[in-house]
Q: What sequence folds into this?
């Protein structure tokens, strides 16, 4: 896909459902929009089957609004709550077998590089804590070891939520879930640090309670991956269904965890990534 | 001529109807087409398509993303030719803009979705339909569901090798062939008029 081809064939404009006409007219393709413009354009996801108050749903909206080039982006997903919403996203996405997402993304990125050598095609992995931190961790880490230029975004709801609430490696020690009634017996995996040591040139944690920062982190991660190497973003996505709080309290919970440090917000940039970001800031500085 | 073991006829075939391919129906070679599971010369299939469309009570075209989106010049040309064909029949159009499942459901008055094409066919009481510009895997899925759950007669105009689960399918349908079929329909229409 490319911004100049997100248009309807002549003669079929009136036949297309209004939703699609609006996507062409008011969608984000080719417009370089950002999260602060949410509400002023037709979003890439507007319907999804996720629970009320789902932190993934909000994070996904923010991610999609932050993509530097939605028309030239392919998302690779995998099994998990978040995958239920991907079929609703109005950009290319591939659903891979549970845990295979970074291997699929690797092949895809390399193929796109050969097929479109002059074009920036962003391959972004978006998965849950189960797909990225547990089941697919081997393939995730090997894509980092190989320095593949892909961005991996984990939507971390700290449990296997759509299978009834089992603990995951990303659940905190002591977390009590439907299928972990006596509490988790070991600490949360420190994946941002593992990412850094495994070769990611950028890794960050964030929550949707800071939408502007989330947008900036996602955009940065994608642009750095395009030029330098693998990047990793971990987003805390509160799950009211399995952690038993009211749907309207999701953001409050994210804010609290940011504040009290129980979900530490960190950012690591390798020296080349730091230099690259400083260059970006100079270019984007308002005059 | 190939012996017909499994006639591919309008349904409803019932829940979990077998795919025509699994029942031994094979795809046609160049210059050939499939009519109700039989391999026939392409010209014969075109005549049959014209007859089906012109005798239908409520014919519909279902253009897919490959022609609805102006992703290259060829797509635009083909879309133009398809539009012209719908005007010649005349047939109505309901688009299949993409394959995303819609929650809670699609609006069957204005779009068709390969995951439940029967809803659109039932709602609009469509007796003959034409799929064109739909990627193979979703055309296969939709055609099988239509045959399983509705009595709609399906025609698949395929840019690749054709579809066994359609009652009639042409292969290698590019702009030129769309125009050729339009001419066949025009001629058949004039003949029908002359007979009245």
A:
């Amino acid at each position: 896909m490319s911004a100049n081809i997100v248009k309807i064939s002549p003669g079929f404009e009136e036949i297309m459902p209004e939703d699609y006409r609006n996507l062409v007219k008011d969608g984000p393709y080719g417009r370089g929009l950002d999260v602060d413009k949410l509400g002023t354009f037709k979003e890439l996801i507007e319907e999804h089957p996720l629970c009320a108050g789902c932190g993934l749903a909000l994070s996904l909206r923010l991610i999609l609004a932050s993509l530097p080039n939605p028309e030239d982006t392919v998302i690779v997903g995998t099994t998990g709550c978040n995958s239920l919403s991907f079929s609703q996203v109005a950009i290319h996405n591939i659903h891979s077998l549970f845990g295979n997402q970074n291997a699929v993304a690797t092949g895809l990125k390399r193929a796109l590089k050969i097929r479109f050598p002059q074009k920036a095609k962003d391959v972004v992995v978006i998965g849950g804590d189960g797909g990225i931190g547990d089941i697919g961790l081997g393939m995730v880490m090997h894509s980092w070891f190989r320095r593949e230029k892909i961005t991996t975004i984990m939507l971390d709801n700290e449990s296997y939520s759509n299978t009834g609430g089992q603990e995951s490696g990303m659940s905190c020690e002591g977390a009590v879930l439907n299928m972990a009634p006596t509490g988790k017996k070991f600490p949360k995996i420190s994946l941002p640090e593992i990412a850094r040591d495994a070769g990611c040139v950028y890794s960050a944690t964030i929550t949707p309670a800071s939408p502007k920062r989330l947008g900036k982190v996602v955009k940065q991660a994608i642009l750095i991956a395009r030029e330098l190497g693998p990047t990793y973003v971990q987003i805390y996505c509160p799950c009211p269904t399995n952690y038993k709080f009211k749907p309207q309290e999701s953001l409050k919970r994210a804010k609290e965890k940011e504040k009290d440090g129980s979900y530490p917000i960190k950012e690591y940039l390798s020296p080349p990534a730091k230099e690259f970001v400083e260059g970006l800031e100079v270019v984007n500085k308002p005059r | 001529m190939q012996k017909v073991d499994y006639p591919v006829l309008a349904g409803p075939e019932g829940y979990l109807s077998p795919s025509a391919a699994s029942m031994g129906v094979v795809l046609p070679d160049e210059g050939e087409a499939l009519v109700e599971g039989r391999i026939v010369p392409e010209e014969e299939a075109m005549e049959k398509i014209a007859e089906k469309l012109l005798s239908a009570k409520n014919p519909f075209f279902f253009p897919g993303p490959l022609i609805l989106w102006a992703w290259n010049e060829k797509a635009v040309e083909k879309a133009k030719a398809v539009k012209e064909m719908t005007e010649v029949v005349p047939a109505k159009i309901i688009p299949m803009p993409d394959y995303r499942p819609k929650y809670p459901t699609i609006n069957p008055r204005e779009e068709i979705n390969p995951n439940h094409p029967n809803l659109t066919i039932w709602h609009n009481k469509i007796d003959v339909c034409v799929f064109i510009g739909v990627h193979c895997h979703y055309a296969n899925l939709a055609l099988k569901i239509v045959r399983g759950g509705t009595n709609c007669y399906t025609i698949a105009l395929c840019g690749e090798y054709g579809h066994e689960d359609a009652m009639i399918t042409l292969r290698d349908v590019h702009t030129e062939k769309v125009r050729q079929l339009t001419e066949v329909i025009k001629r058949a229409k004039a003949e029908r008029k002359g007979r009245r």
Remarks:
- The radius of gyration of chain B is 16 Å.
- The CA atoms of residues 65 and 71 of chain B lie 9 Å apart.
- The first helix of chain B runs from residue 42 to 54.
- DSSP finds six helices and seven strands in chain B.
